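Researcher: Go.
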Amino acid sequence: MSRKQWNDKVVYQIYPKSFLDTNGDGIGDLRGIISKLDYLKDLGIDMIWLSPIYKSPFVDQGYDIADYYAIAEEFGTMEEFDKLLAEAKKRDIQIIMDLVINHCSDQHEWFQKALADPEGEYADYFFFREGKDGNPPNNYRSYFGGSCWEPVPGTNKYYFHMFAKEQPDLNWENPKLRQELYDMINWWLEKGVAGFRIDAIINIKKDPTFPDFEPDGADGLTGCWRMVESVDGVGDLLEDLKKHTFQKYDAFTVGEVFNMRDEELAEFIGEDGHFSTIFDFCAHNLSDGEHGWYDAPPLNFQRWREAIVNSQLEIQNCGYEANIIENHDEPRGVSRFLPEYARTPAGAKMLGTVSILLRGIPFIYQGQEIGMQNAVWNSIEEYDDISTKDQYRIAREAGLSEKEALEVCGRMSRDNARTPVQWDAGEHAGFTEGTPWIKVNPNYKEINVTDQENDPDSVLNYYRRLIAVRKSPEYKEVFASGKFVPVFENTESVMAFYRVDAHKRILLAANFGKETTTLKLEYPMKKVILSNQGSVNIDTSEHAGNTLTLRSCEVVVLDCE
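Model: Structure:
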């Protein structure tokens, strides 16, 4: 799609397993998604991104794909997927799929054939390497902990995996493997999918010599991302991918890109970039610990504001990024980016307003629109996530007590975003009539869709107004294409910026502090577009000199001269 076709869109991410279950097996399904299309249309959604629904053993929740052409039976059938496409199209909603092509499942036919003949052609679909003196070929640590190398039974060889051992990496240097992937991608595009969210894509470029790096931990290993950062040529692979697939269908693509070099931004999202857009993780990266979640720094408002401002200023020179406050791989934004006093409906509205009115494409994650929060986890056994269990182990080995390690995981676990959507105050939050595959957040009686539907001042109804403003004929152009101009950066607790084009100047000002604050407005206000706390306090008297007073957790959006 050209930029004009997608830069005014609003995208909603569905994690199917936790969205809505219609057959009582405790797992969300395609029929559940179909039944809520009108709800999403009313919210103002233009595109739905589906997390993986392919056939999978679910070692990593579907990001280990056993058959790229089949729907996991847990979610339904291909006929039901086709119905989802058709019903979404009736509502002018497009579907984008999750594309996982750095690795597949060890249950995939290709890998099973590779194991059966480690010298055959399918072994070259992956990375099979000889060990060294009975040890793995090198000292890389996987993203989920432990060596990146797993023994191939009955041989001196190992296979390479950057994620779980059940997720062998694909060899993108093999043209036959690339063509297999391109054929699959084009098959989905022919079916009517509008595009893809592309998982862990920068990892596809490997150094096939797999050199050792200096160890960075007591285990003698080094993070596999060091190889990713050191190797050149990923752009050539991404251009080949685009040319043979996305470009032919004007597909919308959003890349999950980490470890990108600063100078490569334009190559990724410029006018003729590899992708339509990539996610902006600048705020989420502030929570990265040196050794894991246990030594992650506490979130600081000024650093958060600075990260977003700097990212926005850099990005607008070359393209658009996708803005998120949470997704299936991150804890809930309300719990992560707001201090405890702000984890309220007003705070959820404030955080959502900032995210959705930034320059870029807003991605809303399921449940965000009702202000869903992190759950309370009582033991490590309650978690399902493979990464959380690894981080718990790391924290305990670093000397944290069981209670301290659980607190760390409670703040950062991906499972916080994977608890079922809270549809109503009934049993299991209306998600299922069976037993949910993962616990329901106990706060579902206070935070749920049904109650908020009936409350005009709810987070849900505010999100509807917010999205309607972004897409309204009067303001659509300035929010889709207008420049981002930061303001009031010298304040302790205010996040504020203008969205500006040749016809409009819109001010967003949000007070993340606990105390009321007053700002001197640079431009006279023409009208209040949106406010999360009712009446807006602006004093235009000669004595006050055009000032805006913001209560704690108040956000206002003003049309200025």
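Model: The chain is about 30% helix and 15% strand.
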